[in-house]
Amino acid sequence: MDDNKVIRQLIRVNLELEGIEVVTAADGAECLEVVHQVRPDLVTLDVVMPRLDGLRTAGRLRSDPRTRDLPLVIVSACSQYEVDSGLDVGVDAFLAKPFDPQELVRLVRGLIVDPLGRARGTGDAEPATGHAGG
């Protein structure tokens, strides 16, 4: 989820090149709708967003039993306030903008793979696919 279309496209392209299906949202309110429809394996969130910011979106996802264990990644400027606030609401990881696309891929792969090395939601032995909402 990012209000900047270029950043959404950058995230989408880099993850799709790795075989990860991506669904995007332009703000937190849209993100919550998409998450409940698509049921992604991970959500990326920008902090500064119209209507509903990334930290409040993360808080809502954590408070909902259906999404409380969904991995959440803040992709933002990552000020100390954002990191502290993100940790308070249960964000799993942070990636500072501007980011290295390969670091994004590594981070997402690490969070959508369970400890047994299987992609979340599948019985595959290889972590080749997953769904990211962002």
Automatic annotation (TrEMBL):
Q: Answer yes or no on keyword Phosphoprotein.
A: yes
4-aspartylphosphate modified-residue sites: D46
Which UniProt key words apply to this protein? Phosphoprotein
Q: Which SUPFAM superfamilies match?
A: CheY-like (SSF52172)
Residue span(s) of domain Response regulatory: 1-112
Q: Name one GO biological process term.
A: phosphorelay signal transduction system
Tell me the superkingdom of the source: Bacteria
Instruction: Specify the protein name.
Output: Response regulator
What is the source species? Streptomyces pilosus
Taxonomic classification: Bacteria, Bacillati, Actinomycetota, Actinomycetes, Kitasatosporales
